[in-house]
Every structure is written in C-alpha cells, then in structure tokens.
Write a structure and sequence with these properties.
Elements lengths: L1 H25 L5 H7 L5 H33 L3 H22 L9 H14 L2 H14 L1 H20 L1 H40 L1
Helix pairs in contact: 1-6, 1-7, 3-5, 3-6, 3-7, 4-6, 4-8, 6-7
Length: 203
C-alpha cells in the first residue's frame, strides 16, 4: 500500500500535466456549441446514442494511439517532431475554423455517424489530441498516458450527458465566449507544436 501511494505521488505531477494538456486540446467545454448545433434536430434518445458513440469511439481511438502511436511512427519512418509539425498545422487550421466560423457544419446523417464523425474525430480526437498523447507517452510513460486518456474521457462522458443543463447555465453567449477562448489556447498550443518540431528537426 505504501509503495502504491509512493508511486501515485511520483506520478501525480506528470498525470496532472497530461490531463490538463489533453483537456485543453480535446476541449469538451469549448465544443459545446458545436455539439448542440450538430444534434439540434435529434430527439433525446438520438442524442444519447450520438454522445455514447462519440465517447466510445473517441476513447478507443486515443487509447489505440497511446498504445501503438510510437510503433506506427517507427513503422512509417516518421519522427515525432515531423508529427508535431503536421499535427500542429492541422490543429491550427481547426482552431482558425472555430475562431472564424464558430461551428462545424455537417449534412444530415445518422446519430451514430455524427457521433463518430465529426464529434469523436476530429472534434474530440484530432491531430492535437493524438500528438499530445504520443508526446505524453514519450515523456511520462504508458501508465500516466493511459490514466490521462481514461480520466479525460470520463470528463467528456459527464459533459456530454449533462450538455443541455451546462449549455443553459452558460447561456449561448457564455458558451460562445468559452469556445473562442479555448480555440485561442488551441491555436497557441498548435504554434508551440510547430515551433518545437521545427527546432528539433533543424537541430
């Protein structure tokens, strides 16, 4: 028991960093207006199916990259720094789209399809989340990375299940403000990924 508590105390700073980084990138609060707009024509049962699909698909995707991401990079001969640059550019495009358009338009599809694309991927699990997961894996190891992913998707599940009360509490303006502020943070993280990746590639 003492060994377990000691290990937990050692992991705590890395785990906290991993959870905070992933929370900002996955951005379940900032995406609330988009989730609402994507499901506004659905009844309550369809919404539950959509959000259940999004949570399950997102968790499986991010766990898959947490467990195999490094091996995939090696298999394709891609350095993590090249992945940082590519992920940063794609993440920056998404952030700019959210800042400028403030939403994500999709044609009429089934609840399961909407839950998988675009909610699970790329809104929840996009290039930024994948890059952050792989970097956390390199810096902190598989245990911290796995716990970070599970904690984040437990939070995502709670937010999606209580999305209507949260949206009413924040209000339309409050939700949009949070969405824009989080998009700014995402853009800043994307720039940092690009700069860090380029610096290491040049070095």
């Amino acid at each position: 028991m003492d060994d377990f508590l000691g290990l937990l105390a050692m992991m705590a700073p890395s785990l906290l960093k991993g959870v905070i980084s992933l929370f900002i990138i996955v951005d379940p609060l900032g995406n609330i207006p988009i989730f609402i707009s994507l499901t506004k024509e659905m009844d309550e049962n369809q919404k539950r199916r959509t959000f259940h699909t999004a949570t399950v698909v997102g968790l499986i995707l991010l766990m898959a990259f947490a467990l195999t991401g490094q091996h995939l990079l090696i298999f394709f001969g891609i350095s993590v720094y090249s992945f940082m640059v590519a992920g940063g550019i794609l993440l920056l495009i998404i952030a700019i789209r959210l800042l400028m358009a403030g939403g994500w338009e999709e044609g009429p599809t089934s609840p399961e399809s909407v839950g998988a694309v675009p909610i699970a991927c790329p809104l929840l699990v996009g290039p930024g989340a994948i890059t952050t997961t792989i970097l956390t894996l390199q810096e902190a190891g598989i245990v911290v990375t796995t716990f970070s992913v599970v904690i984040i998707f437990a939070i995502v599940w709670l937010i999606l299940n209580f999305i209507d009360p949260i949206y009413r509490f924040l209000g339309r303006v409050g939700s949009l403000v949070i969405s824009r502020v989080m998009a700014l943070f995402i853009a800043a993280i994307a720039i940092q990924y690009i700069i860090g990746g380029i610096e290491h590639l040049i070095a």
